[in-house]
Amino acid sequence: MAKRNETGKDGEAVARVFLEKHDYTIVHTNWHWHHYELDIVAMKDGELVVVEVKTRSDDYLLAPEEAVDNGKIRRIVTAADAYVRFFNLELPVRFDIITVIKKGGDYEIDHIEDAFYAPCR
């Protein structure tokens, strides 16, 4: 379990650096509200970007983005709604996924913009 947590933390650090190199401003990382969490909250071009980071080693069976299922999407959207309300923001919100695959000492990164939308209630 500790190795898995370490891989996830490494992946989030790699994703932060990637976003910063692409002119995103990181606002929060690992923002918690009750038992919900947002991996990365960033700003770019007047838009709030909520980024879910999925990290895998190169021997994965399931593509990282496939781990973001409907239940996970609902939790992310709920947390993002709480975030917007907590900070009293009036900005458009976009949901992205960054996948990080660790291959030896290197990382393969894929940034999926507008990966999903908030479901209608």
From TrEMBL:
<dbReference type="InterPro" id="IPR003509">
    <property type="entry name" value="UPF0102_YraN-like"/>
</dbReference>
<dbReference type="InterPro" id="IPR011335">
    <property type="entry name" value="Restrct_endonuc-II-like"/>
</dbReference>
<dbReference type="Pfam" id="PF02021">
    <property type="entry name" value="UPF0102"/>
</dbReference>
<comment type="similarity">
    <text>Belongs to the UPF0102 family.</text>
</comment>
<protein>
    <recommendedName>
        <fullName>UPF0102 protein DWU89_18040</fullName>
    </recommendedName>
</protein>
<dbReference type="GO" id="GO:0003676">
    <property type="term" value="F:nucleic acid binding"/>
</dbReference>
<dbReference type="InterPro" id="IPR011856">
    <property type="entry name" value="tRNA_endonuc-like_dom_sf"/>
</dbReference>
